[in-house]
Design brief:
The structure holds 2 protein chains of 2 kinds.
Chain A lengths: L3 H12 L4 E4 L3 E2 L2 E4 L4 H10 L7 E10 L4 E9 L6 E9 L4 E3 L8 H12 L2 E3 L27 E2 L2 E2 L4
Parallel strand pairs in A: 3-6, 7-8
Antiparallel strand pairs in A: 1-3, 4-5, 5-6, 9-10
Chain B lengths: L2 E4 L7 E5 L11 E7 L2 E8 L7 H7 L7 H5 L6 H16 L5 H29 L3 H22 L8 E2 L2 E2 L7 H24 L2 H7 L7 H6 L4 H6 L6 H4 L25 H25 L19 E9 L2 E9 L7 E5 L1 H6 L2 H5 L4 H10 L4 H5 L1
Antiparallel strand pairs in B: 1-2, 2-3, 3-4, 5-6, 7-8, 8-9
Helix pairs in contact in B: 3-4, 4-5, 4-11, 4-14, 5-6, 6-11
Classes of the chains: A alpha/beta, B alpha+beta.
């Protein structure tokens, strides 16, 4: 069982300081920030390394950060063998919201990433089925963006109170 | 029911819609099936029919405490567990201590709800496969649990009972006696269920060796709860990542053993739920014994909930599996982001992998055995 700080030091040796960083907020859990283009390599390493063995991707959440003009993904991973867990984040600018898909590392990411695209508008490189999942395919906008405005009509039907 | 979309002459494959209003999809779920005769080549689940964008509400509703009623409406057959998950996450973020009595009441409520939820899941599963009688017997028992909830919270399904730091009010005065009575009368009913359904030959024929899920695949798809345990993998958050006061109780984690066929088939997932109910009864008994008689259940609830900037991912064991709440606070009075990691959503994404090559009739068994609630899938 390793603490997030130890895992960060361990990752830094492998990937260098440029592509990862460590952040701890006032309350709650700390996280490791990963460069959007290094996500897949880092995740694969986290899964396969003998000292880490993160075999489960518990949760993948898309988040919109209006102050930073960015969108980001938070990964919560867990090891059932070593019983440690970790949070990681990757961010991309809102006008070029591309983040690598981790579907090839953990299959469960498939639907989570589709949800992040649907709700927050993050695009995942190399995703095998990059479609909306909860909203209709021709829905406008991404509801969980902070500046989202609900369309008044959908195919001629009123969408209710805004 | 099933309606034909296309049947191209000369081609063997046929694409058919199952749902969105199919009786065995447990809600509004549409499955697109590519069929060769009765053999399934591919399944494409289409979800979102119940989508209400719970996460947007959580941001717009303005207060942390006002999110709780919405969590009830995600998995509406295990609302207590949903509330428990959310308040656990919030309490970790706020770093507040919870009174003993509150913790005991919450655990009893969560385990009663687990039994009620499994009764519905098992009953509906039998119903899907043509066993109508057990469903009625199980519903009688489920009513007794709901009566206890109703006496305490005033509601039968959507309770809004747990609050951040406590409970909305104390339990009703006969709570201990009622619960003890339920435990006593319910235990023999599990044997009755086994006689009626679990070891029924037709039921075994329909479920054994069907929808086999190996544990490696289950982990890669992040399965949890009875679905993962049905594949023989011992993993229960109440033991492996204890929250609340679960570390004080003695209970086993039942896992699938491939008794009737292959390890990880529908029957294994089913029997794990049945055996889990017995373990829940054990927990309730111990909790009733340890529960303090006196104590204010609202004293630890903060007047205003305003956590410092930070974030938390907290997970609890709901009847369906790992229920996670990811909450980001930016130091204001309302959450910046709430994400619910719903076990049903994750389990449904696994459906194409485990139902390839099976028959249409088996697909009904597979969907029933992963026990999804569409309110939680679509949120």
């Amino acid at each position: 069982m390793k603490q997030p700080e130890e895992i960060f030091e361990y990752l830094k040796q492998k990937f260098g300081e440029d592509s990862i960083g460590f952040e701890a907020p006032e309350v709650g859990q700390p996280w490791i920030e990963v460069d959007a283009s290094a996500v897949k390599d880092v995740m694969k390493f986290l899964r396969d390394d003998k000292e880490l063995r993160f075999d489960v991707l518990m949760c993948l959440s898309g988040v919109h950060y209006p102050d930073e003009e960015a969108v980001g993904v938070t990964y919560h991973i867990n090891s059932t063998q070593l019983k440690h867990s970790l949070a990681l984040k990757a961010k991309a600018p809102i006008d070029n919201p591309f983040i690598q898909s981790v579907e090839s590392v953990w299959k469960t990411a498939n639907w989570h990433e589709r949800e992040a695209w649907d709700m927050v508008g993050i695009k995942f490189k190399e995703h095998p089925n990059h479609k909306r999942i909860l909203c209709a395919e021709d829905w406008e906008g991404h509801p969980l963006r902070k500046d989202y405005v609900q369309q008044e009509f959908y195919n001629g039907m009123p969408t209710g109170d805004n | 029911m099933m309606n034909l979309i296309s049947n191209d002459a000369g081609k063997k494959m046929m694409t058919i819609n199952m749902g969105p209003q199919h009786p065995s999809t447990h809600g509004v779920l549409r499955l697109e099936l590519d069929l060769d005769g009765e053999l399934i080549h591919a399944v494409r689940p289409n979800i979102g029919y119940l989508h209400r964008c719970f996460e947007k509400y959580a941001e717009k509703v303005g207060e942390y405490s006002k999110v709780i009623p919405y969590t009830d409406r995600m998995d509406y057959v295990s609302a207590m567990n949903q509330e428990h998950g959310y308040v656990t996450a919030m309490e970790k973020l706020l770093e507040i201590e919870i009174p003993e009595r509150v913790e005991y009441i919450r655990v009893i409520m969560a385990e009663l709800q687990r039994i009620a939820s499994h009764l519905l899941g098992i009953g509906a599963f039998g119903l899907d496969l043509g066993a109508f009688t057990p469903f009625l017997y199980l519903f009688t028992e489920r009513e007794k649990v709901l009566d206890i909830f109703e006496k305490t919270s005033g509601a039968r399904l959507l309770y809004n009972y747990m609050t951040v730091g406590g409970l909305i009010k104390d339990v009703h005065k006969d709570f201990k006696a009622d619960t003890a009575e339920f435990v006593k009368t319910f235990r023999p009913k599990i044997k009755e269920l086994n006689d009626l359904l679990s070891y029924n030959r037709i039921f075994i024929k329909r479920t054994a060796n069907v929808g086999v899920l190996p544990d490696k695949v289950a982990l890669n798809y992040a399965a949890s709860g009875p679905v993962l345990r049905g594949s023989g993998f011992k993993w229960d958050l109440r033991k492996d990542d204890p929250y609340s006061i679960y570390d004080r109780f003695e209970f086993d984690i039942p896992i699938g053993k491939g008794e009737m066929g292959t390890l990880g088939d529908c029957w294994d997932r089913y029997i794990v739920r049945v055996r889990e109910m017995e373990q829940s009864l054990l927990i309730i008994e111990q909790a009733l014994e340890g529960m303090p008689d006196e104590g204010d259940v609202t004293e630890a609830s903060p007047r205003r909930i305003r956590p410092k900037a930070g974030e938390i991912y907290a997970r609890t064991e709901s009847p369906r599996g790992e229920l996670g709440y990811y909450i980001i606070s930016d130091g204001k009075g309302a959450p910046f982001r709430v994400k619910a990691r719903a076990p049903s959503f994750v389990h449904l994404s696994m459906l194409p992998a485990i139902s390839k090559g099976s028959l249409i009739a088996d697909l009904v068994a597979i969907v029933g055995s992963i026990d999804i609630v569409l309110g939680e899938v679509d949120r």
